[in-house]
Amino acid sequence: MIPNQVKLLQKVVPPGINVTLKQLLLNSKKWSLSLDNRNHDRATSDNGFSITPYEVYYENNEDSPQWDKQLFQYADFVCLRCLEELNITNFKVNRFYYNLYTQSSVGVMHQDQLGDNFLSIVYDMGSDGFTKINDTIYYDKECQAKVFKSNLFHCGTAPQKDKFRFNLNIVLELFK
After folding, report:
1. Is the Cβ–Cβ distance between 121 and 140 less than 8 Å?
2. pTM over 0.85
3. Half-sphere exposure of 145 toward its Cβ, with a 13 Å CA cutoff?
């Protein structure tokens, strides 16, 4: 992958999988307030909500306070489909992170990781929102993934007309 380039992957999974995944997310009781930027005041801004079914910092998946086996399995499936298309085989999952934005949510520009050997994937489940990466806007398309270096500044946005915007953020560490 070329540094500072965004790659768009189309039709990562069949649309029917999104229907099931959205229903799981709508029914989940594990949502917590999201925080895009540690320096940003959580009490004064709506950054949306998140579920993190996997983070490398937990020794065992089930130790995570937001562990959800089904959400983990769907995230893993999306991740593997993207990596297959990108022909990436030497990696470690750093995090699976689901986002939920409402019309009042405001994204804050941030980096997922600072190192140059990390890759971010933002998988769209279909809405009228977008992801801003550096100064470029990438509108959501159902079953599309945006792939970029994790140290690029980016943020998600609220839906304009839809009630909700869901996406999945995957962060990977790449090895040579």
Report:
1. no
2. yes
3. 27
Give the single-character DSSP code of 62.
G
Output b/e per residue, 58-87; b: 16+ Cβ within 10 A: eeeeeebebbbeebbebbeebbebbbeebe
- pLDDT by residue for the chain (176 residues), tens digit each? 556 689 999 999 999 999 999 999 999 988 888 765 555 454 556 788 899 888 887 766 677 777 888 999 999 999 999 999 999 999 999 999 999 999 999 888 999 999 999 999 999 998 999 999 999 999 999 999 999 999 999 999 999 999 999 999 999 999 98
| Contact in structure between 149 and 163 (CB atoms under 8 Å) | no
- Quote the tokens at residue 129: 């929102």
For residue 29, what are its two tokens? 């009781």
- Quick check: helix, strand or coil at residue 155? strand
Question: 73 by DSSP, 3-state: which?
Answer: helix
Nearest by Cα to 55 from 84, 92, 21, 13: 92
Contact 93, 56 (CB under 8 A): yes
- Sign for the pseudo-dihedral over CA of 57, 72, 27, 103: positive
